[in-house]
Structure formats: structure tokens, C-alpha cells
Specification:
The protein is mostly beta strands. Helix content is 13%, strand content 49%.
């Protein structure tokens, strides 16, 4: 996961995530088939809770044959196109359950299957949303304009670059879904 700069907060530095997000025309089945030995499939449920005046994400990640992970993320305000501070840490299932219990009346949720293709030093993350009819591709980069090569055939499925478009943030997508 390329993270380059760090933003100093009172006591610690927070990594900056630099990411391009693209809207795909359709699920690139033939690309997944071509790279099937390199594809990791993750089932993800993301909960967004408004805690202490900020939206916080708790993600449950289930990958076949691996232990379920619980990840807490706080994203800061975007500092430039595609770049934003991101403080992320693994938490216990109990911690997640406690947060959910305290905030279960007011949250947003999104479910997706993520197909991760590792290609030439980058991770191409294709997200298929369960409750929405969109498919996105995310690529973390060392800088927003860093050159990269798509896995063969994937570029043809790109409809448009939606990096920085708030309506395509996972939080805003989650807010549109009825629980």
C-alpha cells in the first residue's frame, strides 16, 4: 500500500493515502479470469458511525481461508486531489461490537466484494457493491499523477475517473443505501 507523506497531528504522524478511483462500465470478468492466480477476493462490510463529530469507518473483512479482520479508519479532510490523511488500525471483534452497540441507531453501511489484482507493484482493487449498480476501481499510488500500467484488458472497462468526486466516496454511497 503506497503511502508517502505524513501529516503531523499533536502526537503522531498520520499516513497520507493517495488514491485514484475510477468508475467501470461493467465487471471485468475476462480480466479476473486472466489474472485468476493473482486475484484475492474479499467480502467487506463497512459501517460508518458519526462519533465525536467525525465519521469513522469500521470495516469487517472476510477472505476465504483467513481469519475475519476488523479495521477502524479515520480519514481526514482531503489535502489535494486523491490525497487524504488516513489513520487505520486493526481492532478486536469485541471493540467493533462495543462501538456498534453504542451507535446502532445511527449508522451507514455498505457491502461489497473486492477483487484485488497485484500487477507491476500496484494493487488494483475492483469493488462490486451489493446494494448499488456501480463498480469501481481503486489504485493507491505514490503520487496522484504517478504512471502505472493496468492489468491487460482492465483499462478498456474504465468509464471515467471519479477521484475526488464526493458522490462516489464510500461514505456517501453508504448513506444512499437503505438499511
Amino acid at each position: 500500500m503506497p503511502k508517502i507523506k505524513k501529516v503531523s497531528s499533536n502526537k503522531k504522524s498520520i499516513p497520507i493515502e493517495i488514491e485514484r478511483k475510477l468508475l467501470l462500465k461493467r465487471f471485468p470478468k475476462y480480466v479476473i479470469e486472466k489474472y485468476k492466480k493473482k486475484v484475492q477476493v474479499l467480502n467487506i462490510i463497512q459501517y460508518y458511525f458519526f462519533i465525536d463529530g467525525i465519521w469513522q469507518r469500521y470495516r469487517i473483512v472476510n477472505s476465504e481461508g483467513k481469519k475475519i479482520k476488523y479495521i477502524h479508519t479515520i480519514k481526514g479532510k482531503s489535502i489535494s486531489l486523491g490525497a487524504c490523511p488516513e489513520d487505520e488500525k486493526t481492532v478486536t471483534e469485541k471493540k467493533f461490537d462495543d462501538v456498534f452497540e453504542k451507535n446502532k441507531k445511527n449508522y451507514a453501511i455498505i457491502r461489497k466484494t473486492r477483487y484485488v489484482i497485484k500487477h507491476k507493484g500496484f494493487k488494483f482493487e475492483i469493488d462490486v457493491y451489493s446494494d448499488l449498480s456501480i463498480i469501481t476501481l481503486e489504485i493507491e499510488l505514490p503520487s496522484i499523477n504517478h504512471h502505472f500500467e493496468y492489468p491487460e484488458g482492465l483499462h478498456e472497462e474504465v468509464l471515467m475517473d471519479v477521484t475526488g468526486m464526493k458522490q462516489f466516496s464510500n461514505l456517501n454511497l453508504a448513506k444512499k443505501i437503505k438499511k
